[in-house]
Amino acid sequence: MRRAFPPVIAAVVVAALAACARPLSVGALRAGVAAARADDWDAALRHWTEAVRLSPGSAAAHNNLAVAHERRGDWEAARAEYEEAVRLAPNDLAIRTNCAAFELRAEAAREKGK
User: Second label for 87, Cα 20 to 30 Å away, from 1, 37, 52, 55?
Assistant: First the structure.
């Protein structure tokens, strides 16, 4: 007779594995958020670039880096980072929404510049 894995133990194991799998970039992501809240986009860019370096597979890091590039007026770098974030997390509604909103802002900026 096979015994079922007790749900409580399963939950503890899943939580422990999730804690071990935390990306190395958490500190850099948080530092970037703090810089962005202080309207220091140069510092946010540095922190989020580091987050991407530490965790290149992090869609959140690429999304945040895109925001920093956009706020600094680097539309092409922003587009590349938004596209990478969507590629990494195609089902993430927040990231897809951010990318779509960016495209509207980029188009408006192009129209304004004409």
Answer: 37
